[in-house]
């Protein structure tokens, strides 16, 4: 349960422009789609995917680090890590289980005989979009557990795109279609309050000291 008094206290520290910006961005945030990246070796590619999620309104990014333990490249992410929720998993099975339990269908973004072209993809169902490694693509475990397959139509000689480019194209296309649809894709009121609180905390320097002062003056 969100402490509304605490939220109001923090937001009073922010400028009106900052608070209005939060509300505008949250109006366009969604968890209807989520993105998952599997064992991406090049750190900057994971960071670039996170940046695309932030720019196009995907609230959650799932990172599977089964083989390569990494940190988010803050220079490439350009602050996106403050606004996107990162769910980390040390196994493919753990990520698949978590997303299925949340009601997502598993969509592998890779050429496949039963794939759907990007423009034909059914956006009505909550979907987890999986992107694989630069060299090997998605693992067989994800392919075997996928509920569907999605690919970008290409007409040149090159048969594949860099993961960050593929993710950007797919996320931009699907979120634009989503916002023009009748699908209920928006965050819930509770989720919006949670993000307002988190983003306010992320925006205030010396937040620990301010938080301590608030709870000293307003004991629970």
UniProtKB/TrEMBL annotation:
CDD domains: SpoU-like_TrmH. GO terms for molecular function: methyltransferase activity. Signal peptide: none annotated. GO terms for biological process: methylation. Residues 33-171 form the tRNA/rRNA methyltransferase SpoU type domain. Keywords: Methyltransferase, RNA-binding, S-adenosyl-L-methionine, Transferase, tRNA processing, tRNA-binding. Its EC number is 2.1.1.34. Pfam families: SpoU_methylase. S-adenosyl-L-methionine binds at residues 109, 152, 161. It comes from the Bacteria. The keyword tRNA-binding applies. It catalyses: guanosine(18) in tRNA + S-adenosyl-L-methionine = 2'-O-methylguanosine(18) in tRNA + S-adenosyl-L-homocysteine + H(+). Catalyzes the 2'-O methylation of guanosine at position 18 in tRNA. HAMAP family: tRNA_methyltr_TrmH. Belongs to the class IV-like SAM-binding methyltransferase superfamily. RNA methyltransferase TrmH family. This is tRNA (guanosine(18)-2'-O)-methyltransferase. The gene is trmH.
């Amino acid at each position: 349960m969100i402490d509304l008094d605490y939220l109001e206290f923090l937001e009073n520290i922010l400028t009106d422009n900052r608070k209005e910006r939060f509300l505008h961005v949250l109006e366009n945030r969604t968890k209807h789609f989520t993105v998952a990246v599997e064992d991406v070796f090049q750190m900057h590619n994971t960071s670039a995917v996170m940046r695309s999620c932030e720019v196009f309104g995907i609230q959650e990014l799932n990172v599977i680090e089964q083989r390569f333990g990494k940190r988010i490249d803050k220079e490439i992410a350009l602050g996106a890590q403050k606004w996107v929720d990162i769910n980390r998993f040390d196994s493919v099975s753990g990520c698949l289980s978590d997303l299925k339990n949340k009601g997502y269908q598993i969509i592998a973004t890779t050429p496949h005989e039963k794939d759907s072209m990007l423009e034909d993809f059914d956006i009505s169902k909550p979907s987890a979009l999986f992107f694989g490694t630069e060299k090997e693509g998605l693992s067989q475990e994800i392919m075997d557990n996928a509920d569907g397959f999605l690919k970008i139509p290409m007409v040149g000689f090159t048969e594949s795109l860099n993961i960050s480019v593929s993710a950007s194209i797919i996320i931009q296309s699907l979120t634009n279609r989503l916002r023009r649809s009748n699908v209920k894709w928006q965050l819930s009121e509770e989720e919006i309050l949670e993000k307002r609180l988190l983003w306010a905390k992320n925006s205030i320097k010396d937040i620990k000291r301010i938080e301590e002062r608030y709870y000293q003056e307003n004991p629970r």
